[in-house]
Specification:
Blueprint lengths: L14 H19 L2 H13 L6 H74 L1
Pfam family, one: DUF4577
Keywords: Membrane, Transmembrane, Transmembrane helix
Protein name: LSME1 protein
Length: 129
C-alpha cells in the first residue's frame, strides 16, 4: 500500500512563502502555549543552544544600557530645564526694562500735557488782552 504523501509539488517560488507561513505558525503556537516571559527565555535558549551561558551577560549589558540611557535622559532633561529657567530670567529682565521705559515715557507725556495746558492758557489770556 502506498501512504499518502504530505509534500506537494509546487513551483520553487512558493517554497519561500510556505516556509514563511510555517515559521509564522510556529511563532504563533509558541505565543499561545508559552507566556511572554517564558517565550523570551525560550528564544534565548534557542539562540545560545540551550545552555543559557550568555543570558547573564546580556542581562547585565541590558541593565547597563538602561542605566546609561536613564542618566543621559536625566542630564538632557536637566539641561533643558536650566535653559528654560535662563530664558525666563532673561525675559523677566527685558520685561522689567520695557516697563520702566514705559513708566518714564508716561511721566514725560504727562509733563508735556501739563506744559501744553499752560501754553494754551497763556495763549488764551494773551488773545483776550
Amino acid at each position: 500500500m502506498e501512504s499518502p504523501s504530505l509534500e506537494f509539488n509546487l513551483p520553487d517560488i512558493h517554497e519561500e512563502g510556505k516556509l514563511y507561513v510555517v515559521d509564522s505558525l510556529n511563532n504563533l503556537n509558541k505565543l499561545n502555549v508559552c507566556p511572554a516571559e517564558s517565550q523570551h527565555s525560550l528564544d534565548e535558549e534557542e539562540n545560545t543552544g540551550g545552555t543559557g551561558e550568555s543570558m547573564a551577560g546580556s542581562n547585565t549589558r541590558n541593565q547597563c544600557l538602561l542605566f546609561i540611557t536613564f542618566i543621559l535622559t536625566l542630564i538632557i532633561s536637566l539641561t533643558l530645564v536650566s535653559f528654560v529657567i535662563f530664558l525666563i530670567f532673561q525675559t523677566r529682565n527685558e520685561v522689567d526694562q520695557i516697563s520702566s521705559r514705559l513708566l518714564s515715557e508716561k511721566k514725560n507725556i504727562e509733563e508735556l500735557k501739563i506744559l501744553n495746558n499752560i501754553i494754551l492758557k497763556h495763549l488764551n489770556q494773551s488773545r483776550i488782552k
